[in-house]
Each structure stands twice: as structure tokens, then as C-alpha cells.
Write a structure and sequence with these properties.
Layout lengths: L1 E6 L7 E7 L2 E8 L2 E6 L13 E3 L2 E3 L6 E3 L5 E3 L2 E2 L2 E2 L7 E2 L1 E4 L2 E5 L3
Antiparallel strand pairs: 1-13, 2-3, 3-4, 4-11, 5-6, 6-7, 7-8, 9-10, 12-13
């Protein structure tokens, strides 16, 4: 089911924000007018990805540096503890569309 999460002006190009949609925290990012949505919490230590950094379609968690692909929710790399690289779970991504200036995210109930 598609939910309205914000107006397009609330997530300008180059930014990302977290919204609660159907009881889930969803990250919405705008990359040069293309919108992406995925789970907003890192699968390692539940870090808020909206407070992380955005580099192309890669979001980096502000807590321990885990990286995720916005388009797919796939884990690119987990945190490092010295020489040890930890594996983390992928996140879910969600279809996004704009309808009359509103950002709509399709989140299963």
C-alpha cells in the first residue's frame, strides 16, 4: 500500500530524511530528483541512517560506518573492528513515486 510520507519540497535534492510509515522507520533520499526509500535503521546497532552520510547511492551509518545501497537496501560493507570486518544484514528497500508533489512510499502492512 502506498503511503504519503512528505511533500517533495521536504526532501530536496542531495538530502535524506527519516519518516515513520505504517509503524516502520523509512529513510527517503533524493538524489538529483530521483527518490529512494529503505529501512532507516542500520542492521548492525540500529543507528539512524538519516544522520549518516550520503555518497551517490551509498548511505553510511553514523555509528560504525556500515554502508548500504539505497537502490536495493543491500549491505555493501559492515563495521570494522581492527582487522576484523563484520557482516551485517541487508535492509529492505521500498518503491517510491511522486504524485502531485507528494512523496508516496509503497510499504507492505
Amino acid at each position: 500500500m502506498a503511503f504519503r510520507v512528505a511533500s517533495l519540497s521536504e526532501v530536496p535534492p542531495g538530502s535524506m530524511r527519516s519518516f515513520t510509515v505504517s509503524g516502520k522507520e523509512i529513510l527517503v533520499a533524493n538524489l538529483n530528483g530521483r527518490l529512494y526509500a529503505m529501512d532507516s535503521r542500520c542492521s548492525h546497532r540500529n543507528g539512524d541512517l538519516s544522520k549518516g552520510t550520503l555518497d551517490g547511492t551509498v548511505v553510511t551509518c553514523p555509528l560504525h560506518g556500515s554502508k548500504f545501497d539505497l537502490a536495493t537496501g543491500k549491505s555493501i560493507s559492515g563495521p570494522k573492528l581492527g582487522q576484523i570486518k563484520m557482516k551485517i544484514s541487508d535492509l529492505k528497500s521500498y518503491p517510491v513515486k511522486v504524485d502531485e508533489g507528494s512523496i508516496m512510499v509503497d510499504v507492505p502492512e
